[in-house]
């Protein structure tokens, strides 16, 4: 996914069917406690995100 340069709030969640807890970057539960992620140009930027919880197996 390519984003236009700007500031973003990141919300991440696990795959459908998992019990991984959705989080805002960096690991907080509310948008107002999240940090903005700056995308200064069209260059790549990497975020390392870890979700906590369990994955259900069918």
Word description of this protein:
The chain has strands at 6-8, 11-12, 23-24, 37-39. A two-stranded antiparallel ribbon has the order 1-4. Strands 2-3 form a two-stranded antiparallel sheet. The chain has a domain at 6-39. It is mainly β and 58 residues long. The chain is 0% helix and 17% strand. The chain is built from no helices and four strands.
Write the layout of secondary structure elements.
Elements: E1 6-8, E2 11-12, E3 23-24, E4 37-39
Antiparallel strand pairs: 1-4, 2-3
Please give the alpha-carbon distance between the first and last residues.
Answer: 30 Å
**Largest sheet, described in full?**
2 strands, antiparallel
Overall geometric form: globular
The radius of gyration is 13 Å
Provide a brief overview of the structure.
It contains no helices and 4 strands. The protein is mainly beta and 58 residues long.
């Amino acid at each position: 996914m390519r984003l236009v340069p700007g500031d973003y709030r990141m919300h991440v969640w696990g795959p459908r069917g998992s019990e991984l807890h959705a989080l805002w970057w960096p690991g907080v539960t509310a948008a107002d406690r999240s940090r903005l992620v700056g995308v200064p140009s069209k260059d790549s930027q990497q975020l390392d995100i870890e979700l906590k919880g369990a994955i259900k197996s069918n």
